[in-house]
Amino acid sequence: MPSYTAPTKDLHFVLHDLLQISTSDVPGYADLDADFTSAILEEAAKLGQNVMAPLNASGDAEGCRLENGMVYTPKGFKHAFDQIKAGGWNGLDLPEDFGGQNLPYLIGSAVGEIFVSANMALNMYQGLTHGAISAILAHGSDAQKATYLPKMVSMDWTGTMNLTEPHCGTDLGLMRTKAEPQADGSYKITGQKIFISAGDHDMAENVIHLVLAKAPGGGAGTKGISLFIVPKFLVGEDGSLGARNGVSVGSIEEKMGIHANATCVMNYDAATGYLIGDLHKGMRAMFTMMNEARIGVGLQGYAQAAVAYDNARAYALDRLQGRDVTGAKNPDGPADPLIVHPDVRRMLMDQKSFVEGARAFTLWGASLIDRAHRMQDKDADGLISLLTPVIKGFLTDKGFDMCIQAQQVYGGHGYIEEWGMSQFARDARIAMIYEGANGVQALDLVGRKLAQDSGKHVMAFFEIVKTFIKENENDARLEGFLVPLKAASKDLQAAAMFFMQRGMKAPNDALAGSTDFMHLFGHVCLGLVWARMAKAAYAALESSTSDRDFYDAKIATGRYYMARHLPATALHLARIQSGAETVMALDAAHF
Amino acid sequence: MPSYTAPTKDLHFVLHDLLQISTSDVPGYADLDADFTSAILEEAAKLGQNVMAPLNASGDAEGCRLENGMVYTPKGFKHAFDQIKAGGWNGLDLPEDFGGQNLPYLIGSAVGEIFVSANMALNMYQGLTHGAISAILAHGSDAQKATYLPKMVSMDWTGTMNLTEPHCGTDLGLMRTKAEPQADGSYKITGQKIFISAGDHDMAENVIHLVLAKAPGGGAGTKGISLFIVPKFLVGEDGSLGARNGVSVGSIEEKMGIHANATCVMNYDAATGYLIGDLHKGMRAMFTMMNEARIGVGLQGYAQAAVAYDNARAYALDRLQGRDVTGAKNPDGPADPLIVHPDVRRMLMDQKSFVEGARAFTLWGASLIDRAHRMQDKDADGLISLLTPVIKGFLTDKGFDMCIQAQQVYGGHGYIEEWGMSQFARDARIAMIYEGANGVQALDLVGRKLAQDSGKHVMAFFEIVKTFIKENENDARLEGFLVPLKAASKDLQAAAMFFMQRGMKAPNDALAGSTDFMHLFGHVCLGLVWARMAKAAYAALESSTSDRDFYDAKIATGRYYMARHLPATALHLARIQSGAETVMALDAAHF
Q: Do B174 and B235 fall within a single domain?
């Protein structure tokens, strides 16, 4: 059976040593002293470790089932869901007006990592609700907010996002679901939506579906799309639940993973829906949800790698097999632990250095969101908009790879479901696909975000890297971080330059290199946060006499990242600079 | 539902244009004219496409079950197994004395790709039998051969390999299974073996287990290990089946994939066993089986990628989503096919160029085995011994990655089991683990094979590359192949040099870079076979007026490999040259 121990110390390091939140000027951050964040993280850890994680494997094995139109979640899920609900965890970073605690998004993200590592499928019921709340907060009327938000913040009701249809995934312009206006101002929604995560279940009284559909008069393609609230049970003016709406579950998909989350085919049969936001501006409203959702998915990518690493580490320390070639480390035992072998260490260091870097990168991103929202900081908003596809695409691609590598540490046992390593990989796999497949993230990065506001945000990113290097170039301890960071950053600039020079004339040159660019960018981001973490660790070693091993390990782990991961930037640049020629040479008929 | 079309044309190209088997001096190759190999491949394709492939998804969904000590395979498997048997496919490359057809191993491998792509789990029952036959052929007495081989070649009986125990995987010295000598010369075998593929089933009359166990007097560690034949039903002198032996199935493992192959816990309870080969020399006998088995597993890696690619290609041509940024390609339809998008093409070209290169590399390797066996060519034997861990480790790592990428082409549908892309990835995953996890392959390559016969074989490999480049350097058409091949080969030599200079003094420096070296080596091998295939394709274009599109596509696909895959050698070299320092820096307690 896999286990889980929340990395509260590492989270503390990122929040306080790296991001130094208690002295930050972001409104609300000053309240977040070490005692306060520790108390929250410890409570989250208890819930994750003792309640959610023990249901992860059993939930995977049992899955959800549809009986007589009702969706049933696996044994124990309702009980765990009730405890998440009772703890008010869903409202942690939501407005007090609707029952939340108004803590920063950053804290919600730190807690989110713990819950996702503990039980990704279970946490998704909450995560989807959170996304739907964000959309209603941003685009709903006051009446809609009053009707839906208190119950959703408390998780008496959960939420969903309905975009995809059988013939239409990324290309939402092909959408067929229709919204017919009614005399009372509502709409009748008719059509079929697929891949609806948390589409229905037996843990909440009501499910509030946010549904994209085409209302008359909007024109072709995505222009005609509007966003609607479609509750499973209609809600009376007094907030009471009324009749069942015309929405039903057609089936639950059989998937590679996240079996305990019901991925539903939803059939809308003249269901009553309420327009949210402006008519025919549904795409814009949906994107509000999507940007935060994408960071949440990036977090899933590294959180699965984190729990997989946690288990691989334990296994490598415990499993006796072979001998250290430089001399037995466990001479009285029948063999040495796996961890003595350099190739096993390589795998563990790959995982550890990725996970810790990804955590720092994601939480830095979350702090940018707080800065953007709480201070109306346009630069922070632009920067996180640029980094969002990198967080989503790079961290989920790499997070999956690291789950596979953690599984590999187990040898044959890694392939056996009982050990749980297969589930981490199978669950992590979806994060590369949903909320925009990673190729779409790369397209968003190269096709939109790079040139946004005349390239201002990517220039700002380069400036951050340059300034950090300049400010620290006299610190000899950081040389092993700054030299590779500089080289990697130069590769990133060369790639951006290649796109600028060629992208206008030959857009395929940029598009053929988009995924490599996303990975190149991701490596530079992790190189940057590792250099910053090394600096923070050296500072802590100077000011404190305790936990020296922890800070030393942090620096050693960062050095590994710089030596072994970061050189990948040159490969990505070489691929980018090879352009579109070899990619596009074959006629479609000759594949 | 996934589909499968056997790549008979590509196999023909490798056999005849690249390897030019009909004019080869290897005994038996002269009989293999194009008509003959086409007839075989077409028959294999029919069986694979029409009989085996249609059972792949259903076999995965149903899995095997153990009831009252009996293992039952999924619906339809027995029928398909009988057809493989009736066609004499198992004996294709086995001696005529025992009912085989004595065709080259190369032909067996080409057919093997088709069967593995069609249904890996089903093919394993045959594959394991083939491995057991090889061991009996190499080490069995004449009487043992006469008793077991005819029935195994015909697949009336199947075979297994029993190495692993719960506490002992790679480190076989920890083995506990005991063999007690009996007065009649037989042994009583007692112990538990796990992860026994095709351990039992309902398709054959008998199962012949090859079991490693410790007989008294052999000393500690692997020295005391001997190899035994342990039949499920004892065999009388007349070949008739007698009493059930003391071997039983404890359970069937729940695995990530290959559900239709019964992976059994086998309990030996004073089971009657017969020593095969020399007492206490069991490891050597096992390695005979293992080298060919490892090439077979490498083949599984790329064969799963091949069928996954075949489906991804079809999906990308069929699925309409979005528009070509350079202008609509399907203006009358609602959208263009996925294949117009450069990032989708990148994924498909990654897969196509890997699969075709891997096929050529593996079949070249198979031809070296024929040369070694049929001509007692020691150089060929040494070279294939060097390349075996590369074929196994590199092709299964990359093959899995390519299955994941093929799955990614499907977007959300890739995650749904119904589409079959998940199964290709889940099935391919095991190939990175069994027959020696890929880290063990890398260790074998760097720790043993590289220095074997004073490094003679790796020098021979470099000579092959060098000679090819020299012989063709005036052919301007090949410049795009020779320049990158030369650079990649230089990286490989630098890595080998690094190990030679540092490996003796600091073995961890070599071990910490072993997996990167295996991948670096793999890329050079694929670069070499692609350069050769390009040359062969140009030759065909000169001599023939038909199939020009096929040969042009071959060259274009090779160019992609050289431009996009091969630059990875520099990254692997950088990692190798960073040495063991960052890998070994952390104390085990600080992971």
A: yes
